[in-house]
Amino acid sequence: MLALEIWIPYKTYVKMLKWLALTLFSYVITAFIVHVPWAEVWHATWVPHISWSPAYLYALVGILGTTISPYLFFWQTSEVVEDEIAAHRLAQRGGVPRLSRRYLMNLRIDNAFGMLFSNVVAWFIIIVGAVVLHANGVTEVASAADAARALEPLVNGWPNAGYWAKVIFAVGIIGIGLLSVPVLAGASSYAIAETFGWKEGLYRPLKKARGFYAVIAVGTLAGLAFNFLGIDTMQALVFAAVFNGVAAVPLVLLILLISMRSDIMGEHRSGWWSRLGLLATFILMLGAAVAMLLSFLPI
Predict the structure, then answer these.
(1) Element (DSSP H or E) covering residue 85
(2) Residue 102 is part of which domain span?
(3) What are phi and psi of 37, to 5 degrees?
(4) Within 10 Å of residue 75's Cβ, how many Cβ atoms?
(5) What is the tens place of the pLDDT at every residue in 68-86?
(6) Rounded mean pLDDT of 173-187?
(7) Rg (CA), the chain
């Protein structure tokens, strides 16, 4: 992953990431291989069971944190700039890109489709986790291998069905790793490089952005080190998601305030629907974070 992110040209690398996103369909396939009570799932989707317990609120904030994560703000905006440079609409030294109505419409469609796709996949991941793990009393998962092993006894109907279910599940896990690790490390690198004024961008060669690529390398290797330090990686992932859910609250408010200012956004200042969506997101995430924190206080 490090070699690909550092030495493969941006145009080629971003195409690889797009194709890797297709591995997420493995969870959709898995949901139809195992026996899912679809009527119950459909009812629970629209009429969710709400509990004010610390565990429930902790998980809720974690789910919000995986959907609206601060690192995605940095990655998404930085990759738009990368695309602008790759398409020669923006010089490497910066400036104001040439933004047509068609370009902005395509950008909006791309964002809307990406969010729809990610949330549908997340829905299937939750279904698979509930049916494969929770419904069968598997509540302590130390690794992805534990989850894969839990699949086998639930699948039947054709020869070696359990084995192939595990293979499909493994493809999803590996694909997500190849897709998400570079994004996580890259987003951190963009944020740190901009903070310290370093040259940044995946379009730059290594020799022209050493600090930028060094942060990517350190972040990737630090994540790898978790496996050898005895750290519970599953718990670490959940904690990181919850932390993101809390940290995103002030950032969403900041985005809302900036998007409303014509002195910053000019003619591209956000409209009422966009502001309403941002405000609703801020209230929801703030409420969930506050409720979670209050639930941990002794009564």
Answers:
(1) helix 70-86
(2) 2-46+70-231
(3) -75, 85
(4) 20
(5) 888 888 888 888 877 777 7
(6) 83
(7) 21
